[in-house]
């Protein structure tokens, strides 16, 4: 007698996570599609891992489609979901879209975190958008999100690209004045 093993959400999610870690975005999308066709329940962890796989593969458009899938399936997207989508846009040179996603996160009143801010500030670097990076740094302080060396490093890079060296020096001064988590 042969036993037939059934795939479940946990097994497929684990496989998608493995695809994400090895930048196999096509395989991650195929697995997610197979889940949907098999009427398996999609969960946020699976969607997040697939968005991250698309981000690592430079497929920002696919990442945004998956963000829509999360909304369509009424999954409560979180900072991880938005951070992965923002990073995907940043890696694809779509910094304005990245900022739109960040804005949607803020509008949704979802809890943003250091990683979300870092992704948005880093996206500003793709467009030399130092004014936006400056605005994000101010917002970060207002909403009491902890900054990190990555936050300040990303901001310094944006200011340097925008030839705003006095602002870059100001960031370095800010880093020495406060304790910055690495």
Outline the secondary-structure elements.
Elements: H1 9-21, H2 25-37, H3 44-56, H4 60-72, H5 79-91, H6 95-107, H7 114-126, H8 130-142, H9 149-161, H10 165-177
Helix pairs in contact: 1-2, 1-3, 2-3, 3-4, 3-5, 4-5, 5-6, 5-7, 6-7, 7-8, 7-9, 8-9, 9-10
Mean model confidence by pLDDT: 84
β content, as a range? under 5%
Class by SSE composition: mainly alpha
Shape label? elongated
SSE ordering: HHHHHHHHHH
Largest sheet: none
Give the strand tally: 0
Q: Quick recap of the structure?
A:
Helices cover 71% and strands 0% of the residues. By secondary structure, the chain is mainly α.
How would you portray this structure in words?
This protein is mainly α and 182 residues long. It has 10 helices and no strands. Helix 2 runs antiparallel to helix 3 (44-56). The N and C termini lie far apart (56 Å). 44% of the residues are buried.
